[in-house]
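User: Can you predict the 3D structure for this chain?
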Amino acid sequence: MAEYPAEVESGTSIVIVRFARRLKFLSGNSLVKTYPVAVGKHSTPTPLGNYKVVNKIMNPGKSVLGTRWLGLNVPAGTYGIHGNNNPSSIGKYISNGCIRMHNSDVEELFPKIKIGTPVIITDSPDGSDPLPQDSASSDGKRYVIKPGDTLWKISRQFGAPVDLIVRVNRISNPDLITPGEVIIIP
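Assistant: Here is the predicted structure, written as structure tokens:
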């Protein structure tokens, strides 16, 4: 199991790995359970970063939100982890930025989550490292895709072969990258 940031070593936390479309529920550094999720489509991506659960609502009223809502303190808008009325959407890039779960999964998770629970949304290949949203890391290994970027431009910029970038980041379609996504530059 990968090491997680110190802030999640006590209590529970959630790590959402966007590229894998998985939500990991942790107790300390121990993985309790992994759930499949849907995340934001490429035009409205789920925002990367470190957040906290700020509200919990049972039966939030809109059927699209399913049976439970866990609101996050994302400064750029209203985002949350919630159930949904379209189970076939799970595993896809389809939402307006929220994290969708099967209703039965969010109902299982909901009572285990407290207000203030840390939520890390990342594109790190192993889900262990929250990645910055707006800059490459100081060691040049992480890069946030900017509007107009292509993998070929990034390859030339960093001198890393495209096929290696694709393999390291498990990119299924090299022609489909989204501004705001974080990739590892090998």
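Residues 142-184 form a domain with the Membrane-bound Lytic Murein Transglycosylase D; Chain A fold (CATH 3.10.350.10). Residues 151-158 form the longest helix (8 residues).
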